[in-house]
Amino acid sequence: MTRVTIVEVGLRDGLQNESVILPVEVKRRIAEGLIRAGVKEIEATSFVHPRWVPQLADAAELAAQLPREQGVRYRALVPNAKGLERALSTPIDEYAVFLSASETHNRKNINKSIDETYPVLAEVVERAQAAGKRVRGYVSTVFGCPYEGDVPVSQVVRMCERLIEMGVYEISLGDTIGVATPKKVKETLEVLLRHIPAERLAGHFHDTRGTALVNAYVSLEMGIRTLDGAFGGLGGCPYAPGASGNVATEDLVYFLEQEGIETGIDLETLCRVSVEVQKEIGRPLSSKVLQSVIATWSSVGKGES
Amino acid sequence: MTRVTIVEVGLRDGLQNESVILPVEVKRRIAEGLIRAGVKEIEATSFVHPRWVPQLADAAELAAQLPREQGVRYRALVPNAKGLERALSTPIDEYAVFLSASETHNRKNINKSIDETYPVLAEVVERAQAAGKRVRGYVSTVFGCPYEGDVPVSQVVRMCERLIEMGVYEISLGDTIGVATPKKVKETLEVLLRHIPAERLAGHFHDTRGTALVNAYVSLEMGIRTLDGAFGGLGGCPYAPGASGNVATEDLVYFLEQEGIETGIDLETLCRVSVEVQKEIGRPLSSKVLQSVIATWSSVGKGES
Question: Which parts of the sequence belong to the Pyruvate carboxyltransferase domain (chains A, B) (predicted)?
Answer without folding.
Answer: 4-271
